[in-house]
Structure formats: C-alpha cells, structure tokens
C-alpha cells in the first residue's frame, strides 16, 4: 500500500536500493527536510556511496529484513528492487507503508514549484547539470532563480547531485525507466513539467521496452503532460524526436545544426574547450565556450541555454555559466595522469554514448593512441540487440579491451551479447581487441602495455570491479623503476 506524504511531520524513512544515483539524492533531500533517513543496498560504490557517507547515511549492506527493525514510517522502494528481495518481502508481509521514489519526489518537493525536466535517451545528466549551473550563476543577479535540482550524478560545480531551496525552479533529470515493481510507467510521468528538454530518442532499456515504438510512446506521454503555457526544447537532428513532439500542445523550440533550427549551433570549434555561436531564429544569441569536448556536449549546453533563456535567464549569465562549468562525475572524468598515460572514466550505457564519448576523446587528444575498455553492464549493452552498433562504436578506438558481460546469467542466452563475437569482428576490421574476464585481469594485462601518450577510456555504468582505482595502481607499479 502506498503511504501518505511524509511532509506532515518528521518521520523515519527507509530507502531500499539507496545507492542508486537518484535514490541517494532523495535520501539527502529527505534528510534536509528533517526526516530520519536509512537505506540499504546490495553493494555500495562511489560516487553515491561517498555522497551518502558525507551526509552521515551509512548504506546497510547487503539487504536484510532486520534493517526494517524498528519499523520505519515509510519505505521507498527503488526501481531496481523486485519481488524476492528480502526487505521488500518483509514490507509486503508486514503491510508497511511504501511508495516509489518518483511519487515521493512529486508529493514532497514539486508541489507549488516550477518543475523543469530534462529527458531523452542521451545527455540527461550533463544537460541537467548545465541547466542547474546556469540558474545558479543567474541567481547571483536574481535570487529568485536559485535552483532546486535533482541530477543523476554528482555535478562538480556543486559537489552534489541535489539541492532543495525555497525558490520556485526545480530542475530534474527525467528518466524513462520504469518507476517501481508496482508501477511500470516511466518515472518522468510523475514530474508534470512546466517546461522540458528532449535530447534524443533511441531504443534503450531493452529489459523493459520491447522496441523503439514503446520507447517513443513513453516520450509522447511526457510531451502530452506539458501545459499549453509551457515550452519544449527538442533536438532537431532526429526523426524519432520529431515524431514524439509532433502533437505537443505547448510551443516547441528545436535546437541543432540545421539552418532551420530555432536554436542553431554554428561555427563549432572542436577541442578540449568547445566554442560555437548560438543563433536564435537566425540572430546571434551568444558566443559560447564550454570546457568539455564533443559536439554532443555543445548540443547539451545549447539545449540548457535555450530552456533557461525562455524562462527569463539573461544571456550574460548563460555565457558565464558555460565557461565555468566543471562537468559531472563519471562523464569524461579524468581519473589519473601517470607518466603521460591518461585514464578517463565515462558512464557508457548505450552504443551511441560510446560512439560520442570516443569521438569527443579523439577531438580532445588528437594524435594520441586511444584504448577503450568496456564493461557490458547496462540492460541494453548486455543484450545482442545492438551488437553491430557496439562493434561500430568501439572501432573508433585504436585498441579495445572487452570485459565479460556483467551478470550474464540473468540474460537469456538467445538475447545475450557475445563478447567473443564483438572482439572477433573488431580484429577482422583491423582494430586490435581482446576479451578479458574482469577488472583484475584487465588491469594486470593492460598496464604493462601502456605507453606515454596513451588515453584509456573506461566505459561502464557501474562499479566495474573498482577498475578506476586498480588500473592506475597497476600503471604505477608497471612504470616504477625495477629493482636491480
């Protein structure tokens, strides 16, 4: 049964699956409201485990019905939690009050505020972080613009993934993944946006969506929630996006590189710092600079600029915010620089994300050898539905190391990605590729081969066996002078 809003008084609220990016953020938001917050997970890993501990919330590991003693006033069931989880079974057996993350966010934080939702298959976290920083910079001139936000990652300008203020704007990353075991609709349908950004629409989340048409239906439903007085900023380089916004009741402003785009990017200059001009209806709006590589990040920044401008943020604040943006944890994040070897962490979850990440690194590190290390971990990458696209994306690298499919036994053999086939196809295409079991094996085998100037891109949407620390340590050992 769904519990009443926790807003009535301070309560003990327990989160099952607390180390998910949004769940950890919700934990902090609830704690800030004066509630006592506890949470559990199967395993905790950075950056969200670090954020939780910094707030004084120690994740309980692993799941155990004893974590529900004494009984909390309300239990938030994460969307990764399914029947059979020992804590969920205890909640149901004991008829404890429970709800979903998305429903509680709406009831606790979005009422009487202005929800601005960033959604799409790619770029949500970065774009939401950009939008939040734009509002933060603009609030120096206009305090009413100080943003509340909820981001699916740690925004480095803030050092956190969330903030709750008394002001109206509330910026949210809107996820199309399902809400909970008892609510199979997308989480973003709970947010009822006043305005929104739609970045891309592609087939993803193959564990819950049968095909692209089902994905498009979810986004069409979100578009249908935006009021007539609202606004939708939508990417102008995708037929899927065009289909999803075709029946919007609110004004739609398209952004992209087309001459006809309402918001048009032009004169793009690639590099570690991207520069371009942004035109609004053919007239110069601003000359923009972003300390991030890749056309995809320039598009993300332009979308954030477009939405903010339409909500009354001045161009000067937008220019200053983009110039001082510090990215997001696990988005092209440099984790180590050792003897000229650069190790980069990126939250790859889809072949398109892999392609854009590797293209951006090519632009940022021209002339340097690029090694891609991929863990097929997301529910889409673990399946063979995009096997050809995975091969094509990885082929951008000079060398590829592929880990075994994460928890492959949970994917039916007929649907499972075949890493050996991916490696074989890459080798046939002239891209040296190797299949190695796990983080320890990869670190031990790869580190001695690396040379000064190499760029290693670690691609995974999970902990990947702590390879982000193990590989740099192995590189240090390999690079140290050998004892005579």
From TrEMBL:
GO terms for molecular function: acid-amino acid ligase activity; ATP binding. The keyword Nucleotide-binding applies. One of its GO terms (biological process) is regulation of cell shape. Residues 330-462 form the Mur ligase C-terminal domain. It comes from the Bacteria. The keyword Cell division applies. Residues 12-105 form the Mur ligase N-terminal catalytic domain. Pfam families: Mur_ligase, Mur_ligase_C, Mur_ligase_M. Keywords: ATP-binding, Cell cycle, Cell division, Cell shape, Cell wall biogenesis/degradation, Ligase, Nucleotide-binding, Peptidoglycan synthesis. Residues 118-308 form the Mur ligase central domain. This is UDP-N-acetylmuramate:L-alanyl-gamma-D-glutamyl-meso-diaminopimelate ligase. It comes from Terriglobus roseus (strain DSM 18391 / NRRL B-41598 / KBS 63).
